[in-house]
Write a structure and sequence with these properties.
Radius of gyration of chain B: 19 Å
Shape of chain A: rod-shaped
CATH architecture of the largest domain in chain A: Roll
Number of helices of chain B: 3
Number of helices of chain A: 3
Shape of chain B: elongated
Largest sheet of chain A: 5 strands, antiparallel
Mean pLDDT of chain A: 77
CATH topology of the largest domain in chain A: SH3 type barrels
Low-confidence stretches of chain A: none
Radius of gyration of chain A: 41 Å
Strand content of chain A: 15-25%
Largest sheet of chain B: 2 strands, antiparallel
Number of strands of chain B: 2
Oligomer: heterodimer
Order of helices and strands of chain A: EEEEEHHH
Strand order of the largest sheet of chain A: 4-3-2-1-5
Distance between the termini of chain A: 130 Å
Helix content of chain A: 40-55%
């Protein structure tokens, strides 16, 4: 009754009412099942066989089973991607600030501008002092 | 004698052990009746018998079995029902 490829409905448990295919016969009581249900070992008592047999190899992969069921117009939820592939840790605020500062060239520019301004402001004084000293020398010469 | 409002049995009596070791009588409201199968009337398993304020705080998975018709039909009746639907 429960040969490989037999279409079944699960009767018991949280997958009750969902369709599945027998992939492997494990022993007198248990079979391996996949499809709309989770891929799992299942007691034959918890299965209600339907009159269809799908051509599948022993231990067929989940993708193959889903494809075969789609041909029978039985929709299956495809496997969701693992949620915890890469744990995204929240970055610390300080690090974010540093990054922002690095990304911003404005502040550096302003510093440079300030420095240039300072130089500009310092230079005329120097020139003035130089002039004064020159004047003094002239006077002394006179 | 207990206070007049506690003399009827509309409230259930609970013996509570105090920190000092005494056992004291407390009065609490009665629990609701047990949940029954909608088809055969059997008592349902996995459905707690608590007042609504306590059921409210429970997670959904604690309140009924996680199968179709869980908390409504007993497991036998769900099997019969699903089988019948599959054979149609």
């Amino acid at each position: 009754m429960f040969e490989i490829g037999r279409l079944c409905v699960k009767i018991a448990g949280r997958d009750a009412g969902k369709k599945c295919v027998v992939i492997d016969v494990l022993d007198n009581n248990f079979v391996l099942v996949d499809g709309q249900t989770r891929r799992r070992k299942c007691n034959m008592r918890h299965l209600e066989p339907l009159d269809k047999i799908i051509s599948l190899t022993k231990n067929a992969s989940n993708d193959e089973v889903i494809r075969a069921l789609k041909e029978e117009s039985i929709g299956c939820e495809e496997k969701k991607e693992a949620k915890h592939k890469q744990s995204q840790r929240p970055t610390k605020k300080k690090a974010v600030k540093k990054k922002l500062e690095e990304a911003k060239p404005k502040k550096v520019k302003t510093k440079e501008a300030k420095e240039t301004k300072k130089e500009n402001t310092e230079n005329p004084e120097k020139t003035e002092t130089k002039k004064k000293s020159i004047n003094k020398e002239h006077k002394s010469v006179e | 004698m207990p206070a007049p409002r506690y003399r009827s049995r509309s409230l259930r009596r609970v013996f509570v052990r105090t920190p000092s070791g005494k056992s004291v009588l407390h009065y609490r409201k009665r629990k609701p009746s047990k949940a029954q199968c909608g088809n055969c009337g059997a008592l349902l398993k996995g459905v707690p018998r608590e007042r609504p304020f306590k059921m409210q705080n429970m997670p959904k998975t604690h309140k009924r079995p996680e199968r179709p018709y869980g908390g409504v039909l007993c497991s036998k009746c769900t099997r019969i029902k699903i089988k019948a639907m599959a054979r149609q």
